[in-house]
């Protein structure tokens, strides 16, 4: 076996500095991409929450007409076939939002009533609210929304 002497002076390739620059550029692009991805995810979750509240409002109106002036819980709306089973339970988590519904059945002195809050799971985001007396969904960017918060454009 003969050992050949290699001459690395004329070898082509990347220097350490060039590789470090490429890695730094890739890191910057990933950093920008993650910020954009989080913003897009947040906007998508908010749009889904608004659409879900519209669906719940429509489901409650249908339930009200078919059940002699009573509103339904999540489980009753699911059983009635107007709401997806992913909303089962007390406070379902769907697409990054926690939904809370309170239903008050009618009495001899008070009509039936319900309200639904959609609050982002952990982290910042818009909070939404709907009840049968408000014509549009309400929004609050710092705390759970209520009937007196500003409305969003539907």
Give a short synopsis of this structure:
Helix content is 37%, strand content 16%. It is α+β, with helices and mostly antiparallel strands and 154 residues long. A hairpin with a 7-residue loop joins strand 4 (127-130) and strand 5 (138-140).
Task: Give structural notes.
By secondary structure, the protein is of the alpha+beta class. Helix content is 37%, strand content 16%. It is built from two helices and five strands; from the N terminus they run H-H-E-E-E-E-E. A five-stranded antiparallel sheet has the order 1-2-3-4-5, covered by helices on one side. The chain is elongated and about 100 Å long. The model has no long low-confidence stretch (mean pLDDT 88).
Relevant terms:
alpha+beta, 2 helices, elongated
Mean residue pLDDT: 88
Continuous helix count: 2
Morphology: elongated
The Rg value, from CA coordinates, equals: 27 Å
In what range is the share of β-strand residues?
A: 15-25%
Strand arrangement, largest sheet? Answer: 1-2-3-4-5
Q: Quickly give the structural class.
A: alpha+beta
By DSSP, the count of extended strands is 5
């Amino acid at each position: 076996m003969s050992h050949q002497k290699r001459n690395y002076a004329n070898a082509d390739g990347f220097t350490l500095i060039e590789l470090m620059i490429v890695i730094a550029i890739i890191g910057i692009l990933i950093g920008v991409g993650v910020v954009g991805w989080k913003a897009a995810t947040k906007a998508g979750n908010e749009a889904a929450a608004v659409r879900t509240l519209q669906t719940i409002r429509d489901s409650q109106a249908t339930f009200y007409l078919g059940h002699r002036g009573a509103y339904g819980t999540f489980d009753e709306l699911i059983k009635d076939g107007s709401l997806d089973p992913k909303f089962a339970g007390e406070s379902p988590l769907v697409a990054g939002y926690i939904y809370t519904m309170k239903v008050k059945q009618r009495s001899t002195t008070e009509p039936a009533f319900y309200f639904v809050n959609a609050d982002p799971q952990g982290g910042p985001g818009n909070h939404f609210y709907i009840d049968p007396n408000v014509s549009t969904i309400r929004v609050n960017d710092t705390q759970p929304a209520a009937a007196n918060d500003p409305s969003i454009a539907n």
